[in-house]
From TrEMBL:
<dbReference type="Pfam" id="PF00378">
    <property type="entry name" value="ECH_1"/>
</dbReference>
<keyword id="KW-0809">Transit peptide</keyword>
<keyword id="KW-0443">Lipid metabolism</keyword>
<dbReference type="InterPro" id="IPR029045">
    <property type="entry name" value="ClpP/crotonase-like_dom_sf"/>
</dbReference>
<dbReference type="GO" id="GO:0016836">
    <property type="term" value="F:hydro-lyase activity"/>
</dbReference>
<dbReference type="InterPro" id="IPR014748">
    <property type="entry name" value="Enoyl-CoA_hydra_C"/>
</dbReference>
<dbReference type="GO" id="GO:0006631">
    <property type="term" value="P:fatty acid metabolic process"/>
</dbReference>
<keyword id="KW-0276">Fatty acid metabolism</keyword>
<dbReference type="InterPro" id="IPR052377">
    <property type="entry name" value="Mitochondrial_ECH-domain"/>
</dbReference>
<keyword id="KW-0496">Mitochondrion</keyword>
<dbReference type="GO" id="GO:0005739">
    <property type="term" value="C:mitochondrion"/>
</dbReference>
<comment type="function">
    <text>May play a role in fatty acid biosynthesis and insulin sensitivity.</text>
</comment>
<protein>
    <recommendedName>
        <fullName>Enoyl-CoA hydratase domain-containing protein 3, mitochondrial</fullName>
    </recommendedName>
</protein>
<dbReference type="InterPro" id="IPR001753">
    <property type="entry name" value="Enoyl-CoA_hydra/iso"/>
</dbReference>
Amino acid sequence: MGQHCSSSPVVNNQMSKRIIKTPVAEGTQLKCYVTLKISCNISLKQMSRAAFHLTSNQFTKSEQYEQCTKLFECDGVREISLREPKTRNSLSLSMMGEIMQHLCAEWHNKNLRCIIISSTGPVWSAGHDLKEISPECGVEQQTLVFEKLAKLVDNIRRAPVPVIAKVNGIVAAGGVQLVASCDMVVCTEKSHFMTPSRVVSEADLDKEMEKIIISIKSKSRAVLALGKEFFYKQLELPMEQAYRQAIKTFLPKYYASCLIHTTGGPVLQKFVEVSESNGVREITLNDPKTRNSLSMAMMDDILEALCLGWSNKELRCIILNAHGNVWSAGHNLRELGPCKPSKKQTEIFEKLTKIILSIYEAPVPVIAEVNGLAAAAGCQLVASCDFVIATDKSTFMTPGANFGIFCSTPGIAVSRVMSRTNAAYMLMTGLPINAHQAYQAGLVARVVSEDDLEKEMCEITSAIKAKSHAVIALGKKFYYEQLQLPLAEAYRLGAETLLPKCYITSSVHAIGGHFCENNIPKMRRYIRVQQSNGDPTSNNSPTTITKDILSEEIRSDCSYKDLRCIVLRTVIGNIWYVGYNLSELGPSKVNDLVAGAGYQLVASCDFEVTTDESAFITM
């Protein structure tokens, strides 16, 4: 075997086969060869590429001298498979080096349409190889390991094609980081880790992947590359700035997007129906012949009806619904037209942006009532409402990439209400999601049958009307402001907003009772917050004294090395914590379960464990 050693591949013609022999395990004393048999009809270019992959990849120093990963590429789909099940596919430096090499290869190749990262074995990846980050390795080695994964994650975002994690097993530590950094995640129901983009049965995993791949390959590669780059940039921008940037980025690209045409209605047509009764205003899109396309005339009518009479204290909520099987198919593409960018096109996008910003500025809740398809800018309008009620026959999609233009502005709206991977799935595949999938992703608040839709809307509007108009207006304004603030600043603004309004509701009544020292919860450190002599009528409402004790107990002895966790727990009946003791703020009436500031306290813990009978409410 040693007599054949050579620095270049040796090619022999035997038995109608070409055999490429290449030395491997460079740097070791053992000299061995990998033999690759290839059919005679293979091209020289393909042979050279095969030889390149064999010589350029690093090999692990295992007894079998196997690579850490395996690369498959066919018909525009590149699959990188992690192949170290014995180490639970740990992300060693050599593993990450190979993933990086395969990930970044030939991005200029226009035939490359998507990249899949998969694995073998029951563990997709257990994270970093702990042997490489042990204390003995030193800070320099540890830094190198973490920087390698950070660079890999950055390249996933920079890739000009969608990168999809295909998961069928356990994902832990750095493996979760790698999966979460992919544009979308498809996993089997037996996988354990994080909230993925799609969950399917193990038998359907390959079928689901095939559907996604076909959808991606049907799109323009240039459109997806531009769209993906913008998608991640806009996530870090304030919403208003994101919309301006979208118009600036994508308006020059609006050319081949008119494969679907919508017909314009009569000039004098009224495109919406407006009705108002008992404080509820309904704005109904009424142009089913164009699939309720958002023409300039339609948007003018919506904006006028939306902004009418905000000063009227009798107005309590606004509902957006539609006639026909299509809630809205998005912009009227005839108005955009296959022409060069114009002032009119800019006005179209700016008009919808103005509607969306007006929804946020409205002093009352704006609810989307959906019973059909909401697509493209129609989906954007739905996602921009304060919340969405949909029937089980509703569907949602952002299909712009199907027609040569990325759904940039719809992406701004959906990415602010859905998880990043679910939003990327919709934007990069153009595939529809049903109402239940939209509910799981966070786009829809409630899913009901078509028969129950009217009843559900009646219950919601009744609940809203039972609240103070001023409180809802103030709360909605603060809610959207704090979303764009750092956590500490949001809490400061929340306190400043809440305190002057503590006495605003005359509809709540005191339940009597006063603070007594016997009602101070007895704290058992590290185990529970207990009120041993508790009065059930206090509903675990913390007084100022109680909050000081709780804060002191949580903060004390944090340097104590044997302290491993802190559990907040209560033992009064079926009431965990109702929030502030309103007897210190003013008149109050409270219910049981976890409510008000109690909900805030629970949500601020690192994680929660609840019984299936627990309920949470923000009163």
